[in-house]
Structures are given as structure tokens and as C-alpha cells.
Design a protein that fits this description.
The protein has 610 residues and is an alpha+beta fold. It has a 4-stranded antiparallel β-sheet with strand order 8-15-13-10, with no helix packed on it. The longest helix has 32 residues.
Length: 610
């Protein structure tokens, strides 16, 4: 039997690594750093195969199954080597890795002294002291720094993030370097990950799978998050100590973005970052993402009738994790679009298109490329299987077309009978003529009549005063020009008093100013005393726009403030054409964008004038 050269086999190490409460077998290629996970049987076969290669006298005793397993592993190793050396990396807008440094051992030697105390008791004590100081400062200032988050998507804030983020990520990666150095894990290199075309530094800690325990790997993965917490606390304290407003602004935004990215991305297990590797080690599933994707395919196949293979143990939780991971990526993209689109129209549209390609089109194309063909099935059957998922997707999207795109709030409305159309008495008095419970009235028809003896007496006294003033004016006319003027003033004052008394008297009778319908609010009886402002009913005019009123939920007040400028009242509850919703939504976003531009220009003009 022809066996490979011993030099090739010696470059591969079979390693026993801790995983959960047990162990796993890893085949490590020292030339490339690639790690191949083996089952227990395959690992035993490889051990016998490697022994037969190293000792020519043992080749005759090598079983055919062991030789087949050994050659399969070697073929995979050669394939990975060729792919790494000669293969062109396909452009991936989700994540693409560019290695810049091949060996970080010199850096590990330089930080060896610092790494001995990293993430130990002294480090925890310092972190606790920083946390206590930040808590006290936050209480004293009513958490003023947190209130700056409303301006986190301004142009200045985004530019600050673009400049500061790489430096914060370098500090984040130094946390991984210190933790790996503390546990004697060799770092194979480092470089830049292009995540969504944005450069983020990284270090290669893959050899932790070979030399570190599970809890050591968890600490190495979480070291970057712990470093972000420490940096965030330092920035929080520095914001309260620094007095320069410009420096405060930069430090505050660096704190907000550092905290935001650490919580939303790094610490989140639904994205393939630090939180993901922590969860993978906690669950003892180093290939959590791959296992979840395969489990989702099996569950989907059974649900759609495309496969009759039985589900494996743990497929449902893994499939749920895969769905949650995809949904979270959608949520992040749509959330960013929703925040950016009203303020930066071009950037919002760009992120929306990019997110659709990354999250929807790229995975679908990869799935079609990797879909295996079944030799025994005919061309028609393969064609049906190929178009089954797109057909289901088309049906789903078609169903979505009948849903309202714009936010909708159903409010029960009625004429504003307690406000705009409320009919109240303006003078106090006794009810003489009782109004009808409900009646159609023409202009000038009487609704309610009151009686007030005080107004009757005032009207009588005002008439007497006017007669006296006229007599006095005739007497004073013989006293010259001054007497004539004095008499005229007395008559004018008496006439004004009479008009006031007549107005009060006339206000005791309510009449219909225009044609309309009167509806009484309560039952009145003759002799009932009414105070000024007492509401007796409502009067709805004919032939005019009706003012409606309804209870608007407090949960929708923010949406109303953010740009709802028109409400459509529908009496039958049917959905309006979806394209009208899309056009209305687009017009609203464009208007918000223009308003934001105008507000930004006014702010800059105010700053220049100041």
C-alpha cells in the first residue's frame, strides 16, 4: 500500500482538548493553523494511520478502513492548504478577513509582565473601584451623560465614531492579547475584519482550542468585553472631570458608542463575535453556528415536506437559535435605517439596500449554489425542488402586499360636543323656557330662556339714568360751551350703561345662530338656577366641517411627534392600496430629511453668529 510522505503526517498533531465535561479530538495543521475536528473513531483510525506511516514495518498491518480515514483527513488538509495559498477569497459583504500580521508572539513577550495580573483579583478590584466612582458621579449629576444619547445619530457624532472606533477596537483586542498571554495561548496573527465594509481589528486566538481549558477560552473571548467595560468607566469618569466643552463632547460620544457597540454587537451571542464564542463554549458546541444552520435546514425540510429524515436531538433549540440570529441581524439593519433615513437620506437608502443584499440575497444565492442534486430524481423533480422555496417566498411577499405599510392607529371619534360644539349660558338666571331634548332648529329659533330679576332692575335703572342725563343736558346747554360738553358726556355714559344692561338681558335667551341640530346634555326644569358657564347641550351646525374628538393612546405620542402629519378617517375599515401607503411613507421620510437639513443649517448659522 502506498502511503504519503512522513514529513506531511508529522506536520499534523492529534490533540485531545477539553470540551464541557468530556473531551474532543482535534487534528491541528501546524503549517496553516487549520484545525479539523474528528470523531473518536476517526481519531483512533488516524492514530493508527500515522503510526503506520512513521514505521514502515507496521504498514502491512494497517486496516483498509484506517487507511481510508487517514487519506480522507489528508485530502481535507491539502484542500484547505491549497485554498489558503492559491484560492481567491470571494467577496463577502457580511464579513471578510484581511490578515496583516502573521505572528504576534513578539507582542506577547512584551506584555508578558502585565498579563500576569490581567483579569485577576487586582484587576477586578480596580474595575469595582471605577464602577463605584462612576455610579457616584452619575447620581450626583443625574446621569447627564446618558441624556446625550438623543444626539447619537447626528453628523458630528457619526464622524466622531468613525475616527475614535478603530482606536477603541485596538484597546478591545489588547484585552484578548493579555488574556491569551496569561494562559500561554499563542496568537497566530492579526489583521482587520471588514464587517459590513467597516474595518475592525482582530487577533487570531484559534490555538486556544488546543491548549486552553473551556473556562480559559471563555475568559479569552470575554476579555474584550471586560476591557470595553473598563474603558467605558474611564471615559464616563473623564467626562465628569474634564471642563473643556469640546473635549467633553468627544469623550461623551466615545463612551456612548463604546457602550453601544459592546452591548449590541460584541456581547451579543446572536452575532458571530465574542458573545457567540462564549455561548459556544458554555454549550460545548464549538461549531454552534454551523450546527444551528444544519439543524434549521433539517427542521425546515421536515416542516415543508422536503425531507423525511428524522430530527436529531437538540435540533429544535438549535433551529430557534438560527432563526433568532437572522431576526436580530434584520432588527439591527432596519433599526439603523429607521434612524438614519429621516436625517441622511442617501446614507439611509444605502444601508437599506446593503442590508437587503447581505441578509436576504447573499444567503439565498449561497443556498442555491450549495444545494446538492439527487441523481435518481428526474429533471422535472429537481426543477420543482429548486423553485419550491422561491415560490413560498413569493407567496409570503404577496401576502405582505395586502398589509398596511404605514403605521396605523384606530381611534373611536365623535363630534366634539364637550368642547367646540358645547352650548353654555353666559349669564346666571332661572330657567323659564325648557330646551328640547333634541331638535332641528333654523336661524334665530329660541333654544333656552332664562330670567334674572337683577338684570331687569339694572335695565330699568339704566333707562332712568339716560332720561335724567338728557334732562341735565338740556339744562346745562344754557351754561355755554362747557355746559354743552358736560351734558353730552353724561348722555354718552348713560347710553353705554343702557347697552350693557340690554346685552345682559339679551344673553338670557339662547338662539340658534345658524341652522343646525341641538342636543340637550341634561334635563332642565323651570325655576332651576343656572350659573354662568353651565353647559345645557351641544349645537352642531349644518353644512360645515365637523370637528371630531377621540382618545389618542400615550404610546403613540412619540410616533405623532416624529412626523405623522395627516390622519385618514375610514368608515369601513378596509385597507387602502399598499402603494399609497408606500408613497405616503416615502414622502414623510423625505419631509423629515428636509426638516432635519433646515434645522442643521439654522443650528450652524446660530453657532456662527454666536
Amino acid at each position: 500500500m502506498d502511503l504519503p510522505r512522513p514529513q506531511l503526517v508529522r506536520q499534523l498533531d492529534l490533540t485531545l482538548s477539553a470540551e464541557g465535561r468530556g473531551f474532543c479530538y482535534l487534528l491541528h495543521d501546524r503549517a496553516t493553523g487549520q484545525i479539523l475536528r474528528l470523531t473518536r473513531g476517526t481519531a483512533a483510525a488516524w492514530h493508527r494511520f500515522a503510526g503506520a506511516v512513521a514505521r514502515p514495518d507496521a504498514r502491512a498491518a494497517l486496516a483498509e478502513e484506517d487507511a481510508r480515514a487517514g487519506f480522507s483527513a489528508l485530502a481535507y488538509v491539502r484542500q484547505m492548504r491549497d485554498l489558503q495559498r492559491f484560492g481567491r477569497k470571494r467577496f463577502n459583504p457580511v464579513q471578510m478577513q484581511i490578515r496583516l500580521i502573521e505572528d504576534l508572539v513578539p507582542l506577547q513577550r512584551a506584555v508578558g509582565g502585565v498579563s500576569r495580573n490581567a483579569f485577576g483579583p487586582l484587576w477586578i478590584a480596580c474595575l469595582g473601584a471605577l464602577g463605584l466612582a462612576a455610579f457616584v458621579l452619575g447620581l450626583r449629576n443625574d446621569w447627564a451623560l446618558i441624556t446625550q444619547s438623543h444626539d447619537v445619530f447626528s453628523l458630528d457624532a457619526l464622524l466622531t465614531f468613525g475616527i475614535v472606533a478603530p482606536f477603541l477596537k485596538i484597546i478591545h483586542e489588547m484585552g484578548h492579547v493579555l488574556a491569551a498571554t496569561r494562559f500561554n495561548v499563542r496568537l497566530r496573527g492579526g489583521g482587520v475584519n471588514l464587517i459590513g465594509l467597516y474595518p475592525i481589528p482582530f487577533v487570531d486566538c484559534s490555538e486556544a482550542d488546543l491548549t486552553a481549558t473551556r473556562w480559559q477560552r471563555i475568559l479569552i473571548s470575554g476579555a474584550g468585553i471586560l476591557t470595553d467595560i473598563a474603558v467605558g468607566l474611564v471615559l464616563f469618569i473623564a467626562w465628569h472631570v474634564v471642563s473643556n466643552p469640546d473635549a467633553q463632547l468627544v469623550i461623551g460620544r466615545a463612551f456612548l458608542f463604546s457602550t453601544f457597540t459592546s452591548l449590541v454587537f460584541n456581547a451579543n451571542p446572536l452575532m458571530r463575535m465574542d458573545g457567540y464564542f462564549i455561548l459556544a463554549d458554555l454549550l460545548s458546541r464549538r461549531n454552534l453556528g454551523t450546527d444551528a444552520s444544519r439543524a434549521l435546514k433539517r427542521v425546515r425540510g421536515r416542516a415543508l415536506g422536503m425531507s423525511s429524515a428524522p430530527l436529531r436531538s437538540g435540533d429544535l433549540p438549535l433551529a430557534a437559535y438560527a432563526l433568532a440570529s437572522a431576526a436580530y441581524r434584520w432588527l439591527v439593519i432596519l433599526g439603523l435605517v429607521w434612524k438614519l433615513l429621516p436625517r441622511y437620506l442617501g446614507v439611509g437608502l444605502l444601508i437599506g439596500i446593503w442590508g437587503g443584499i447581505v441578509i436576504l440575497l447573499a444567503p439565498m444565492q449561497a443556498a442555491f449554489r450549495s444545494a446538492p442534486a439527487t441523481p435518481e430524481s428526474g429533471g422535472e423533480a429537481r426543477s420543482l425542488r429548486r423553485w419550491r422555496i422561491p415560490a413560498l417566498l413569493a407567496v409570503f411577499l404577496g401576502a405582505l402586499m395586502f398589509l398596511p405599510v404605514a403605521p396605523r392607529e384606530v381611534i373611536d371619534v365623535s363630534p366634539d360636543t364637550t368642547g367646540v360644539y358645547a352650548l353654555a349660558v353666559s349669564r346666571a338666571g332661572l330657567v323659564v323656557t325648557v330646551p328640547p331634548a333634541e331638535a332641528r332648529l333654523d336661524t334665530g329659533e329660541t333654544i333656552l330662556t332664562l330670567d334674572n330679576p337683577a338684570f331687569d332692575a339694572a335695565l330699568h335703572v339704566a333707562g332712568l339714568k339716560l332720561d335724567e342725563a338728557r334732562v341735565a343736558a338740556q339744562v346745562s346747554a344754557g351754561a355755554g360751551a362747557a355746559g354743552v360738553q358736560r351734558g353730552s358726556d353724561q348722555v354718552t355714559a348713560a347710553q353705554q350703561g343702557l347697552r350693557i344692561a340690554e346685552t345682559d338681558q339679551a344673553a338670557l335667551t339662547l338662539r340658534a345662530a345658524v341652522p343646525g341640530r341641538f342636543i340637550a346634555s341634561e334635563t332642565l326644569v323651570p325655576g332651576l338656577w343656572l350659573q354662568p358657564g353651565a353647559v345645557v347641550g351641544s349645537f352642531l351646525p349644518d353644512g360645515d366641517e365637523t370637528m371630531m374628538t377621540g382618545a389618542f393612546p400615550e404610546t403613540s405620542v412619540e410616533s405623532w411627534d416624529l412626523g405623522v402629519t395627516r390622519v385618514t378617517l375610514r368608515s369601513d375599515g378596509r385597507f387602502i392600496d399598499v402603494w399609497r401607503h408606500v408613497a405616503g411613507w416615502a414622502r414623510g421620510k423625505l419631509a423629515q430629511f428636509r426638516d432635519a437639513e433646515i434645522a442643521e443649517r439654522h443650528r450652524r448659522l446660530d453657532n456662527n453668529e454666536g
